[in-house]
Design goal:
Layout (H helix, E strand, L loop, with lengths): L1 H14 L2 H37 L10 H30 L4 H18 L1 H15 L8 E4 L2 E8 L3 E5 L5 E5 L7 E2 L5 E9 L5 H14 L12 E8 L4 E9 L4 H18 L8 E6 L8 E6 L2
Antiparallel strand pairs: 1-2, 1-5, 2-3, 3-4, 6-8, 7-8, 9-10
Helix pairs in contact: 2-3, 6-7
Length: 299
Amino acid sequence: MLLIKTINDKLQEYLFNEELWVGIGFGILKIVLIVIVSAIIIRVGNLAIQKILSLRVKSPLRISERRENTLAKLLSNVMTYVVYFAALLMVLETMTLDVRALLAGAGIVGLAVGFGAQNLVRDIITGFFIIFEDQFSVGDVIRVGAFEGTVEEIGLRTTKIKSWTGELHILPNGSIVEVTNFSIHNSTAVVDVNVSYESDIQHVEEVIRDLLRVLPSKYEDMAAVPELLGVQNFGASEITLRVICETAPMQHFYVSRMIRKEIKLMMDEHGIDIPFPRIVMYNRDAKEGQAGKGESSGG
């Protein structure tokens, strides 16, 4: 009983120690302040990064908008990791833990883990060279293996690609071996136009060329005047004419649709027929032993 009473007295003395609770209160307050200050530093740092990069217009060393977005996200991620790491060390120090001993132990453990984290190191190194060599940037449309879409974010370890159907693909940078970038150079729209064999090809080509000359003033995504290459193919019931047009990067699908629409309206205006399937029928029972031939058509 005497031992229990002694333990109880010491426990009460410890719990009702005013200095203990004052120290705990100051520690909690300090931790809260560390978290708040860290959040403020990150927010101010992000604004500073955006401000510094926005001054590129006034600088002789200008960078493209696509690379600016990539650098902004990368610098923001690096700054966030550094601030959170420093905040964690300060919180541990507030909790009266020996930070130096922890760092020394972490260094030894990190050396051991490093041998098993080769993929992580490869991802980080590859991510650095992707940014340094400007292989692709945020906002670019790329294809990596079986994945194709718009680059949402490039981090030190992973790259996020959003497909046109909405899926978000997260790829480790080390797995990116071959990249096809569709956003660096202008694209080319290719449109095939079918006309009937009865049409006057020279007249059709003339009206199409007249139309193509005015299209760039209507569609700003056209980088040049569309060009009519001429007869591309002879089909079963149609003659195919090919039109090409240089467009802004990744705008060739839109421009192709607009060219088809304008050509269809033009053909209706000039009475140019669109070809329809034809079937040739032979009558083996024709008189005098000659095969009579008839032609029918179907739309």
